[in-house]
Design goal:
- By secondary structure, the protein is of the alpha/beta class.
- Among the domains are: about 260 residues, no CATH class; about 150 residues, no CATH class.
- It contains 20 helices and 9 strands.
- Helix 6 packs across helix 10, helix 7 packs antiparallel against helix 9 and helix 18 crosses helix 20.
- The longest helix is centred in the first third of the chain and has 26 residues.
- The C terminus is likely disordered.
């Protein structure tokens, strides 16, 4: 039986597969506007899937009764050769800039014409002759000063022209690559091939779609961080034009190289583009939006696998990923005792509030006293969704492993639920893997150098801090984030930025106590909570601390596997102005 949670690459999905799996129209609405947009998020937050459903074949299936007012051209940066190292050796910045522009134009336009080849109806028959003429004229201009002869193109045959142009763009793209590579063996004469520039060909073609068919050209640049700096500056210069007919949607993982343009100025948020940070969309806790999103994804995948209940509907994710009943029974017993105890101290709603805050913590404290904290089971759909930390891919990866493990241990050919023991085993193993990979530079998507050992120390230390706070008898015990009381050093900010880029921390914001401005809030990914047996069930607060605390963590390895009865040194907890933790409720915070 096929695993319903098989991990797939969004860009490789057929249109029908992509639309059947798509669940997040609210996210789609955020980026469908006719303005350039940077979509930021870690691996697994759904950037590529978002770009997939923006493409014409998916839009046609999603909205069959209404043609969209845009035409998307998807360009995956990772699938192209950008000669990043070779470009660094080119002595002439002007030549590098022009060749980078021509190269990027060719790559994008080739993708556009592949779309037109596969869907000829995009250009209605009454516009096709004029479109062919426009393309021919613009290509001729590109070859005007070229030492290379212009290949013959059809005068009016639309489909044949599209095919020939695709071939031409591929050949000329290779010509630029070969020229740049040859620079390594010594400077050659100036580039003698045709030059394809924004104003010369891309803008006129985009204007044609905009003026004749009222369709804005969306250029979807996936993994924009991986563009060479020269190509990035070219792209920024195009964005700075703010042309109505040409809009750029650029996905990044917080490592976009520069916002500089050719003129030396920078493109600016709101003025030239908007930003949509997918990673912080679900930072606030509890985020019912995210849990509901994962639930819809599960239902669609279970439907595709034909895992149906007695009513013929897909199995409820709550039943497919059941909680541990015995554990829940023990927690319910503690709940009754807490209600009785707190009713003698508090009144009204406060009783339920404190029970809600401390319930799971009290259960974990009881396990800790028996030196059995590791026996706590992370199970149940909601728990698994929260543990994925806003990264849908992490949920899918764990669910895929759970299904495979359950199938191996089942005597039947069909798995209709995942036992709690398997759920717990997989998410704990996943958390341990994430933790151990922090210091491994080979596992870093950003490819940036840095003191990853120090970052691993910080993450481990925070996990240990939060664990001890959870096992304390304080008023607020569930803590996953911290903010600085005073500005940290530049070196510390660089370490934290790397941790954010790789998804170990998520950056949010919190209001300053004085009421003026905001402070950065660093939220520990819940994906590693099982490595420290942290409670992820609900309410949480944050630490307010001096930079020296994080500096101390970075400089020495926090012990990950402390005995359950061990405590963190007291000096590290004297972190507030009065030696106390500062706590805030999520509903008292600004929107992150």
């Amino acid at each position: 039986m096929k695993n319903p949670f098989e991990l797939v690459t969004a860009s490789k999905l057929a249109a029908l597969e992509a639309t059947e799996l798509w669940c997040d129209d609210s996210r789609l609405d955020r980026v469908r506007g006719r303005e350039s947009c940077f979509i930021n998020g870690n691996r697994g937050t759904g950037k590529s899937m978002l770009f997939r459903v923006l493409q014409p074949d998916c839009q046609e299936l999603l909205f069959p009764e209404k043609r969209p007012n845009f035409l998307s051209v998807y360009f995956p940066v990772q699938d192209s050769d950008f000669m990043a190292e070779e470009l660094q050796f080119m002595e002439s910045n002007r030549q590098k800039s022009v060749l980078s522009e021509s190269h990027l134009i060719l790559l994008i336009l080739r993708q556009l014409f592949v779309v037109l080849r596969d869907s000829p109806q995009i250009v209605p028959s009454e516009f096709q002759t004029r479109f062919v003429q426009l393309v021919g004229e613009r290509i001729q201009i590109a070859f005007e000063f070229s030492e290379v002869n212009l290949p013959e193109l059809p005068d009016s045959d639309y489909e044949e022209t599209v095919k020939r142009v695709i071939e031409l763009f591929a050949v000329e793209g290779d010509r630029i690559v070969n020229y740049v590579v040859r620079q390594l063996y010594g400077p050659e004469e100036g580039y003698g091939g045709p030059l394809f520039l924004f104003d010369g060909i891309l803008a006129p073609i985009a204007d044609f779609f905009y003026e004749e068919m009222d369709r804005c050209l969306f250029i979807l640049i996936d993994d924009g961080d991986d563009l060479p700096r020269s190509h990035t500056i070219v792209l920024n210069s195009w964005i700075a034009r703010r042309r109505k007919s040409t809009v750029f949607k650029v996905s990044t993982m917080y490592a976009y190289k520069t916002f500089e343009t050719r003129s030396g100025s920078n493109i600016q948020q709101q003025h030239d583009f908007i930003q949509y940070d997918i990673a912080t969309r679900f930072v606030d806790y509890p985020s019912e939006d995210y849990v509901d999103l994962v639930r819809r994804i599960c239902i669609k995948r279970l439907r595709q696998a034909r895992l149906l209940g007695e009513d013929g509907e897909p199995v409820d994710p709550e039943l497919f990923f059941p909680a541990d009943e015995k554990q829940n029974e023990r927690i319910e017993e503690i709940e009754k005792k807490l209600i009785k105890t707190y009713s003698e101290i508090y009144s009204g709603r406060s009783v339920r509030d404190y029970v809600y805050r401390h319930l799971t913590s009290e259960y974990m404290r009881s396990l800790s006293q028996k030196r059995a904290l590791g026996s706590y089971r992370y199970a149940g759909f909601r728990t698994l969704a929260v543990l994925s930390g806003g990264l849908v891919r992490d949920f899918i990866i764990c669910a895929q492993r759970m299904y495979d493990d359950a199938l191996r241990k089942s005597r039947d050919e069909v798995v209709n639920h995942i036992p709690p023991a398997i759920q717990n085993e997989v998410v704990r193993s996943h958390a341990d893997t994430i933790l151990s990979d922090i210091s491994d530079i080979r596992q870093k998507r950003s490819g940036e150098t840095g003191d990853w050992t120090a970052i691993a120390n910080i993450i481990s230390g925070l996990g240990a801090f939060f664990k001890q706070k959870m096992l304390s008898q304080g008023s607020v015990r569930r803590v996953f984030s911290f903010a600085f009381q005073s500005p940290p050093s530049k070196e510390m900010l660089q370490l934290l930025d790397l941790a954010v880029k790789e998804g170990y921390l998520v950056r949010g914001f919190i209001s300053k106590k004085e009421g003026s401005g905001r402070r950065d809030l660093y939220v520990l990914t819940r994906r590693i909570a099982p490595a420290f047996s942290l409670d992820v069930s609900a309410y949480n607060g944050y630490m307010s601390l001096e930079p020296k605390v994080i500096e101390m963590l970075a400089s020495r390895n926090a012990i990950r596997d402390w005995d359950d009865n061990d405590t963190v040194q007291g000096d590290l907890f004297s972190i507030g102005p009065d030696g106390e933790w500062e706590i805030t409720k999520p509903d008292e915070q600004e929107t992150w």
